[in-house]
Design goal:
371 residues; alpha+beta; DNA polymerase, domain 1; 5-stranded mixed sheet; 5-stranded antiparallel sheet; 41% helix; binds magnesium ion
């Protein structure tokens, strides 16, 4: 057991989350080859989540619907209902917070719990994991897998091993031995650049890294947190129902995307130091324009710049297939000088606090700033 160990984390990861949620309201789909996904209008789109029965045929998230249908002719396709998934996700996270307030939400279907403070309250880590597992199944109706380990990153690997619907604990001081043959590139947080550099040094597996640079392994990889507490960027793009010549129409779509990313950013109390706008034409040529060294918080600021960049990026008179907007880099918004400290700045900040509150309660379409 983990007695006498100073740290212990649980990584909870929902199994095929979107599909599991759909199975709750469509029990007739249980055991079938199901995907959640699909495109808009006449476009077919891609798979957002696949049931394990579909995965057995090589269908994964990101597979095109066309390819998925080729692999599983009897495939059932369910349109995504993200509002529902977010509701279930909030329920799951609330269940986790009943176990400990130390919950780091990593995505809609994934969280890390620091169990150190609640061992006395709930008992040994495996008992806690079992309690979480049963509670989520009972109260949210969806299965999950849980990894338990001394470090968040190892817990995350353990939850992968626990798939599906299981619990896996990696014993302290056995992590390295256990991971010896794993490729470095599969460690969470090891990106393409680090992998390329380590490959250049002829280091491919955890074992090889431990031999060559044990301190690098222990201090920089094994013990690092799973993810930044906030995202590096927020972006949204839309493949239009059909290729569009009408620039007014495309600009209206772009403004909507801007409102979406701006409110998502504000919800996390972040502000943006840069923006980029992307245009892709029917023939798949893409153009992008950026601006940095700025400070953006509100919809109208994002829209103003996005429209300017759109004019620059839209350099061909061809029908447009896709538009997108991205805000990056992001940093924490302490609200120090919203739009200058003057009375107008204060008014705008207050107005947006109201807009954000109403949107949170009634959805994004309920209220936004007009032009
Ligand atoms: Mg998952």
């Amino acid at each position: 057991m983990l007695n006498g160990i100073d740290s212990v984390f649980a990584h909870v990861d929902m199994d095929s989350f979107f599909v599991s949620v759909e199975l709750v309201r469509h029990p007739e789909l249980q055991g079938k080859r199901v995907v959640v996904g699909g495109g808009r209008g006449s476009r077919l789109g891609v798979v957002a989540a696949a049931s394990y029965e579909a995965r057995a045929f090589g269908v994964r998230s990101g597979t095109s619907i066309l390819e998925a249908k080729r692999r599983c002719p009897d495939l059932m396709i369910v349109r995504p209902d993200h509002l529902l998934y977010e509701t279930v996700s909030r329920n799951v996270m609330a269940i986790l917070r009943e176990i400990t307030p130390d919950v780091q939400v990593l995505s809609v279907d994934e969280a890390v719990l620091d169990l150190r403070g609640v061992l006395r309250l709930w008992g040994p880590p495996m008992a806690i994991a079992d309690r979480i597992h049963r509670k989520i199944q009972r109260e949210a109706g969806v299965p999950c897998s849980i990894g338990v380990a001394r470090f968040p990153i190892v817990a995350k690997l353990a939850s992968k091993l626990a798939k599906r619907n299981g619990i896996c604990m990696l014993m302290p001081r056995e992590e390295t031995a256990f991971l010896r043959d794993h490729r470095i590139s599969m460690m969470p947080g090891v990106g393409r650049m680090t992998t390329a550099y380590l490959n250049y040094l002829d280091v491919r597996t955890v074992g090889e890294l431990v031999e060559r640079a044990p301190l690098f392994w222990e201090r920089l990889l094994l013990t690092r947190p799973v993810e930044n507490p906030f995202p590096k960027s927020v972006s949204s793009e839309l493949t239009l129902d059909r290729d569009m010549v009408d620039r007014h129409g495309v600009r209206a779509v772009l403004r909507n995307l801007c409102r979406k990313v701006a409110s998502r950013m504000r919800r996390k109390s972040l502000k943006a130091g840069g923006i980029s706008v992307r245009v892709r034409y029917g023939d798949f040529q893409s153009f992008e324009q950026h601006q940095t060294r700025i400070e953006l918080r509100y919809d109208f600021e994002v829209i103003r710049l996005a429209e300017k960049l759109f004019k620059l990026a839209d350099c061909l008179s061809l029908p447009i297939r896709l538009v997108g907007v991205r805000l990056a880099p992001l940093s924490v918004d302490e609200g120090s000088r919203p739009l200058g400290a003057g009375p107008r700045g204060q008014t705008v900040a207050a107005a947006y606090r109201t807009i954000d509150k109403v949107q949170k309660k009634y959805g994004r379409g309920s209220l936004f700033q007009g032009r």
